[in-house]
Amino acid sequence: MTDQKLTATPGQTVGPFYGYAMPWPGDNELVPPAKAGAVQLHGYVYDGAGAPVPDAILEIWQPDEDGNVSRNSGSLRRDGFTFTGFGRNEVDPEGRYVFSTLNPGATEAGKAPFISVVIFARGLLNRLFTRIYLPEDTEALAADPLLSSLDATERDRLIATRGADGSLRFDIRLQGENETPFLRFPSHED
Amino acid sequence: MGAQKPSGPDDAAESQQTLSAEIEAIETEHKNAVAAGTPAETQPRLDYPPYRSSILRHPTKDPRHTDPETIELFSPAFGHRDLANLESDLTIQAGGEPIGERIKVTGRVLDGNGRPVRNQLVEIWQANSAGRYIHKRDQHPAPIDPNFTGVGRTLTGDDGSYSFTTIKPGPYPWKNHHNAWRPAHIHFSLFGSEFTQRMITQMYFPSDPLFALDPIYQSITDKKARDRLVATYDHTITEHEFLMGYNWDIVLTGGNRTWMEEEDDD
Questions:
Q1: Minimal Cβ distance to B151: which of A20, A51, A53
Q2: ipTM rounded to 2 decimals
Q3: Which residues of chain A have pLDDT under 50?
């Protein structure tokens, strides 16, 4: 459904110096970690040699536990109560990211719940999109149009692993044998 | 210090000549492909070896074509509670006046159908007039300006417009190769009305002599596409005895939600 009339402005790498500009206090806490239902979403970003990428920055965007898409502002000045659905996290020097968030709900009955992700890094010339699916609803996962278009190993790379403490682990591999499947939407030209 | 011997993937041993030859070869190959009927590229290549840091950081598999799901058809909402009023003026953030050429950069954020992107967050960051970032990893031995953070934020207006008052950034050296210098630029971070439109890019200044030498800028292999990152000097934006004016419009990817009813964000 894209009758595009204007050509999109090209992207460029986020570069190495976003660290004093893009993060803000509480950027990765979509909900306070102590809140009931808070889930730790975490993982590592790796390059094609399997080395952690220490200068990547991730954003997540997701519905709340009931599958509602938040229209609330306030992500940059969190009040501790309003769920905005958006978070940002600069990976640490070991390439690890962490968010405190909620399990996303299904936006429509029978849909597989997932968290939308965009990745920026030094050395990465344009943003990358992917999805973090929850592992539980196997029926919905089997019916998901994206997942069913992938082979089994690729499919598994888009599904987070649930820890005993309820946390979600999801690693991102920019390149290589176990490369994360990245997404291209119909409006994208690259 | 800048004299420190670099090593590893950022090893600055190769000459500009070597890099320029690689850049030119890729551009020529692209030109020939276009002449043979291939559509011109409009976005940077992820696999662009002259930018050495990209070698291990670009996906090798094609992206999976996917229709956006509901969450991806919306974007995070930002409002005036998210920003202080003056965050779009980078010249009044610290104690005194920053040093350098005062400029205004203004334009509009549009979607692919030319419609304004309203009430969305625009973030910028940049080096100071001497080419130095306030960042612990920036080792360039140029002075830090105590009156300049180089960070700005604003929300677009109903017509998609944004405006920043700042200082013209300087070029700065980096370690891609020997004697590598980035053309002066301002980093821009943009949101659309859908998350699929999320992007980060860099705005450049007209006629920069470093354009041809810079592998990040040249990773967009088509000149017409590269030119879209260059602001225009606009004397109607220039203010009498105060600042120089630049215009730069940003177009986001088309957007998939165009067929849906316009929602009311209140």
A1: A20
A2: 0.96
A3: 1-2
